[in-house]
Structure formats: C-alpha cells, structure tokens
Specification:
2 domains; 10 helices
C-alpha cells in the first residue's frame, strides 16, 4: 500500500460506504478528508458479519484491488440510517461521474457495502452488487487504460455537480436527461444507447410541445446533418 492509502484507512467511530471496483486500473487519490480512492483497505470484519456475508464474497472484496471510500464520524454506529444512505449516495454518484468521464474497466461487478467501524472491526449493515460498467473499446490497450488522479478529480467535481442538481428544486428537465444519459452509457446494446442519448438531448434542448421532432432536428443540425439527426430520434 502507498503512503496515501495507508493514511486513508477507516478509524474507530467512523461510518463508511465502500465501493469495490474489481481489478480496475485506477490511481490512488485523496479527494477530500472523508473521501478517497485506495488500492488496499483493511477489511477486518467481525466474525458474525463475515459468516453473514460469506467467505467467498469477503475474499472477492479483499482481492478487488480498488476501493472508493466515503466516511464520516457518527454517534449511531450500530444503526443503519440516513447517514449510511448519504455515504452510499456519495460513492455511487462518484461512480456515475467516473463513468461519464472515463469508464473504469472492472473484471467483475462492483460491490457496495456500508456500515461502521468499532474496536478495530467493521460491522457491515448492507451489501449490494452493482451492474458492471460497460466500456466499449476496440483494443485491449484501450480497455485497460488506467485512470489517473487528474481524471479522478474531474470525476469528483462532476459528482458534486450531479449532487447539486439532485438536491435542487430546479433543473427538472436536466433531472430527466441525466438518468437517460447514464442508462445509455451503461447499456451494451447500441440501439438502446442511441435511444437513451436521444432522450437525453431531447431533455436538454427543451423542445416545445408538439414540435419535439422539429426542434430536435434543428438543434442537432449544429453538429450533424439535420435529416440524419431527425432519423436518429425516430429510431
């Protein structure tokens, strides 16, 4: 483990959410005091939690080799509550942002856990398996391209912007466009990706009622032939 990773371990009294990205080629980075990416994480899980989770899944977690961690101090360590949900939201929102900026190449589905640390051991209150990010590339070198610290910091900024949109009472159409975009980049089917991207653009350009097809084609003409853009929407 590097010094950055060693300095970023969970402490007693912390609640946490950990996103494991199996074998993803990602550099370590301390993005905030309570948010970091590390190659190694001390997963000293209490025996009863280890039995509940299962040795196989614990081994998969320990061998993931890339962890995104969010933590905060808490007085309700034994309770799964809004603090845990906020931490889960932070790491999943970061994954969404990272997928937008540069999709990580994972060898298996990412794993998500949340809980707390007490007396040197982790109590895992919730665990989930996420959809593996889709990375469409045409060479092994491109697929295995690593993600460096500057890219992680860009993704962290994007995650902050996504959180601002999510928490705001404004941006109604953008709130519809963002899930469409995320759905598109996470789907391996080309035709479905195209459909979701068109929905995303439709939401951003604010097309008028009854004139969506015309407005879509007019705005799209800035970057593509109008007829082709109109046909793409019709698909």
């Amino acid at each position: 483990m590097t010094n950055a990773g060693a300095a970023s371990q969970l402490k007693d009294g912390d609640k946490f959410a950990v996103l494991a990205l199996p074998r993803a080629q990602v550099e370590e980075a301390r993005l905030e005091d309570d948010f970091w990416v590390t190659h190694a994480l001390s997963l000293s899980v209490a025996d009863h939690w280890r039995k509940w989770i299962g040795e196989v899944r614990i081994k998969e977690l320990e061998d993931a080799g890339c962890f995104v961690v969010a933590s905060q101090r808490s007085r309700t360590l034994s309770v799964l509550d809004a603090e845990n949900q906020l931490l889960l939201t932070r790491v999943t929102e970061f994954l969404n942002a990272l997928t937008m900026v540069q999709t990580p190449a994972c060898s298996a589905s990412p794993m998500l856990i949340t809980g707390s640390r007490t007396d040197g051991e982790l109590s895992v209150r919730q665990m989930a398996t996420l959809q593996i990010p889709v990375k469409l590339r045409f060479s092994t070198a491109a697929i295995m391209q690593g993600i460096d610290q500057p890219t992680l910091r860009i993704a962290f900024s994007v995650a902050g912007a996504l959180a601002n949109v999510r928490c705001s009472t404004s941006y109604v159409r953008l709130k519809r466009a963002i899930p469409a975009f995320l759905s598109g980049i996470q789907d391996p089917r080309v035709e479905e990706r195209l459909h979701q991207f068109c929905r995303c653009i439709d939401g951003v350009i604010l097309s008028g009622r009854g004139s969506g097809r015309r407005d879509f084609a007019a705005h799209g003409a800035l970057c593509w032939r109008r007829t082709r853009f109109r046909n793409a929407r019709d698909l």
